[in-house]
Amino acid sequence: MEAVGAGVTGVKAGDRVYVGGTLSGAYAELSLCDQTQVHPLPANVSFAQGAAMNVPYATAYHALVHRAAGEAGETVFVHGASGGVGIAAVQLARARGLTVIGTAGTERGRRLVLEQGAHHVLDHTATGYLEELMRLTGGRGVDVVLEMLANVNLQKDLGIVAMRGRIAVIGNRGTVEINARLAMNKNAAILGVALFHATPPQVVGIHAALVEGLSNGTLRPVIALELPLVQAPRAHEAVMEAGHHGKIVLIP
Amino acid sequence: MEAVGAGVTGVKAGDRVYVGGTLSGAYAELSLCDQTQVHPLPANVSFAQGAAMNVPYATAYHALVHRAAGEAGETVFVHGASGGVGIAAVQLARARGLTVIGTAGTERGRRLVLEQGAHHVLDHTATGYLEELMRLTGGRGVDVVLEMLANVNLQKDLGIVAMRGRIAVIGNRGTVEINARLAMNKNAAILGVALFHATPPQVVGIHAALVEGLSNGTLRPVIALELPLVQAPRAHEAVMEAGHHGKIVLIP
Fold first, then answer.
1. What is the pTM of this model?
2. Cβ neighbours of B10 (radius 10 Å)
3. Mutation site, B187, B193, B202, B206, interface A, largest A CB count within 10 A
4. Which 8-state DSSP code applies to residue A229?
5. What is the DSSP track for B65-101?
6. How would you classify the pairing of strands B38-40 and B17-19?
7. What is the block-wise mean pLDDT of chain A (252 residues), using blocks of 10 residues?
8. Cβ-defined contact of B175 to A176 (cutoff 8 Å)
9. Which residues of B touch A55 (CB under 8 A)?
């Protein structure tokens, strides 16, 4: 969208922007935002891509950088890499110099994960995929796991993290039985992630990094579908259907 | 014990020392140590107390400081505070300026926990003790949990940590069912702790801090029982019996 008013963050009226939250809601032609919620949208990025930034990219950044402290040279396993946060995490981690291993449950999803920059992709519906992961890491395990479905995978993740590994829990839909001894034996960590609880300085850092990534082309939000605002109900159905890789964007 | 040889760490032959591990074993009149394992024992501390330092105090320090990053002004809940690591954690956390809440299952244990510096003590066998904990923190919860029995308490701990709280798992004896959503909702962390995996620089830091704490009197290892080395088999029985608060030390 375009900024109507100016802010202290360097955004002027008429500038192309994306927003990280609004005060008045985003299903609208105009939105009221706090100036800290408005970020410049580089010329090489579409408005639809801008609309796809905030939750997935900001969450992936908060998980990988602030919570898991993933560093260049480390290996990250994106457990569920073909969804919105997963694609963002693959692009972010690749650009920061991590070795990226992703998973997806479909052939199309796995192709997408590789296209977005993963060094390796695995099928999390295949038996033995975690043994394959251990082979890919020379038996060492991964330094960081970005976990999209902790209720299914958390105990398995404890088995495949390396010494001092960090498991960032981004998605979860129920309870899971774990043996915390596995975490003790590796000085490993399970880290809950909610973008909602990022501190104000962290939010500033997140968007400073995301704008730069958009500008230099390392972050490229994938749009699955654009629908007019009037078709918002249809968008809510589409988001629950399988097989959409990328974000669904409403166009006012 | 007394050092026989000198080391680069400033210990001279004849100095009083304690050891953080040995090369040749500690059930002995003499032990061979790497020089990095030998630390000065201040004059105000007995040899028996020196023998009680390494595993409990070093573990408590690694958990509280390196893993959970407990800071002055925060609240720490020592879930199981009357054992060796628990007592060490209470003394360490109190000296660093944290508000300390401990638990013990017996009246004698609770008295000990208060004597060692806890601001509050709770009975973890009493119904409603976690509601009492929440009242003590004004409903906010605790910043750090040092957990001695994760298989029983981990899910409960997720309920009583504050926003951005850290649960350091020091002890565990089986599996536990958790809902990772609780960790997500608070950006909370579950941190496995094994002293064995502290890095060499961390080990240096641990003993620098412990020697200073012994010297200034804030760390005072509690000795439950001293037995002659020849009675080592009896010591192994005693350590499994209930009701020993403090360490059992073999005297060569």
1. 0.93
2. 11
3. B187
4. G
5. IIIS---TT-EEEEES-SSHHHHHHHHHHHHTT-EEE
6. antiparallel
7. 72 92 92 93 95 95 98 97 96 98 96 97 97 98 98 98 98 97 97 95 96 96 94 92 84 91
8. no
9. none
Give one DSSP letter per residue of A24-64, joined into a string: S-SSSSS----GGGEEE--TTS-HHHHHTTHHHHHHHHIII
Contact A188, A19 (CB under 8 A): no
- What percent of chain B clears pLDDT 70, i.e. is strictly above it? 98
A195–chain B Cβ distance below 8 A for any pair = no
Which residues on chain A are in Cβ contact (under 8 Å) with B67? 187, 189
Confirm or reject contact between B150 and chain A (CB < 8 A).
yes
Q: Angle CA(A116)–CA(A251)–CA(A9) in degrees, nearest 5?
A: 75
Query: How far, in Å, are A147, B94, B96, B167 from residue B219 at the CA level?
Result: 40, 10, 11, 23
Tell me which of B148, B161, B185, B191 to substitute to probe the interface with A (most A C-beta atoms closer than 10 Å).
B191
| All structural domains of chain A | 17-55+199-251 (3.90.180.10), 57-196 (3.40.50.720)
- Which distant-in-sequence residues (6+ apart) come within 8 Å of B111 by Cβ? none
Contact A172 B185 (CB under 8 A): no
Interface contact B218, partner A, CB < 8 A: no
| Residue numbers in B near A179 (CB within 8 A) | 151, 172, 174-176
The amino acid at A252: P
* Complex ipTM value: 0.90
